[in-house]
Amino acid sequence: MAVNPGQIACLSSEGIGVQQHEAYTAQRGVLQQGAQVQWIGRTEVDIGIPEPGVELHGQFLGRRRFQRNPQEIFEQLAGEVDCPLHLGITEAGGLIGGTVKSAIGIGNLLWAGIGDTIRVSLSAEPEEEVRVGYEILKALGIRSRGVRVVSCPSCARQGFDVIRTVEALESRLQHIKTPMSLSVLGCVVNGPGEARETDIGITGGGNGTHMVYLSGVTDHHVKDGNMVDHIVKLVEAKAAEIEASDAAAGGSSQSGPAEAQPLVDAAE
């Protein structure tokens, strides 16, 4: 259980008593790396719910002090306690550097089956933190909400500006919640192969004319001038089609039960 000062204040305001018991003697900065796992988690927080016969016990983990071996710490913790584990890389840095650190730290643990909730902490807008968190979950196949974009790096073969096109599409498709895939490839070398594996695909061609794939099959051409607008309309139409099909089948476009999936924590 992750408990921070803000949550303690909230609990206290609701009449829930919080008492911290420190059961360690080592001083900060003195511990060697090998002692971190043994020391971590020794600080317990007992939360007494003011109701007869009900008492909740949790652990307050001082993991923010240790950035050298979180994998080992959480692996040991997962094997020793039967409670939800909250993952996050605190003070990770800016948008790019913090995203990389969070993806490695959080993603590696989730890949190992460890973790129940996550928090991405960046020196960036809160919306970016949530977006990065969802992208981590999508990359691991834990969540599938929204458009998964497959795109290539820019090179001399590209038939259109791949970088600017992907930037524009990602920005304009953020409102789509239905799980689906979109490939944006600048040339005919790699484009057709990727387009055959996605719901909608665009492959760069010559003279400003590009091929559009629908459900993995070549369908029609589109010109440079209205390419982004055209793809956005195709994605919106495909999302509506999927939602209508799911509604008719009595299903859901979200994969798997929500309660079994790690959650993005928007507050530290």
Tally of individual domains: 2
Determine the strand fraction and express it as a percent band.
Answer: 15-25%
Overall pLDDT metric: 75
Counting DSSP H or I runs of 4 or more residues, the number of helices is 8
Rg estimate, integer Å: 24 Å
Give an account of the 3D structure.
This protein is an alpha/beta fold and 268 residues long. Helices cover 36% and strands 22% of the residues. The chain is built from 8 helices and 11 strands. It has a 5-stranded mixed sheet. The chain has a 3-stranded antiparallel sheet with strand order 1-2-3, covered by helices on one side. It has a 3-stranded parallel sheet with strand order 4-5-11. It is elongated, with a radius of gyration of 24 Å. It starts with a helix and ends with a strand.
Provide the fold topology.
Elements: H1 5-13, E1 17-22, H2 33-39, E2 43-51, E3 54-59, H3 70-80, E4 86-89, H4 95-111, E5 117-120, H5 126-139, E6 147-151, H6 162-172, E7 180-185, H7 191-195, E8 200-203, E9 209-214, E10 217-223, H8 227-249, E11 263-264
Parallel strand pairs: 4-5, 5-11, 6-7, 7-8
Antiparallel strand pairs: 1-2, 2-3, 8-9, 9-10
Helix pairs in contact: 4-5
Which features would summarize this protein structure in a list?
268 residues, alpha/beta, Sulfite Reductase Hemoprotein, domain 1, five-stranded mixed β-sheet, three-stranded antiparallel β-sheet, 11 strands, 36% helix, disordered C terminus
